[in-house]
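Exercise 7.
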Amino acid sequence: MSVFLKSSVETSTSEDDCKQLITLGGHLKTIRTRQGLSLKQVAQRTHIQPNQLRAIETGNWAKLPEAVYVKGFVKRYAQALGLDGAAIADTVCVEPAAFNPQWVNRSDFSVRELGAGPSLVNWWAKLTPLV
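Solution. The predicted structure, written as tokens, is:
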């Protein structure tokens, strides 16, 4: 998944997106320090690990979980600072990752769904003599 600011969706490159996210994290850090709050204090308020808050502040998105979680983290972080977390989180756009067939766990599907093995169409007829 990728994360970037909505205003950048149409016109920017991934490098521009990264710079804008660093800017967002930098603003949150500036507000936090002006309020005299440590990362540990914000972590206690938000229940987000300090290392993840630091990654948001520095724009190190590789150290964060899936983008949809980052959006929630930004919202909670902003709310903990007394800001409108929903409005700030709405500026972050989340795009799903491209589908990779190798991610599919074939054991999650029944034999019938995979098109292999015996058909279970007559299962009732096979169990009737047992009753």
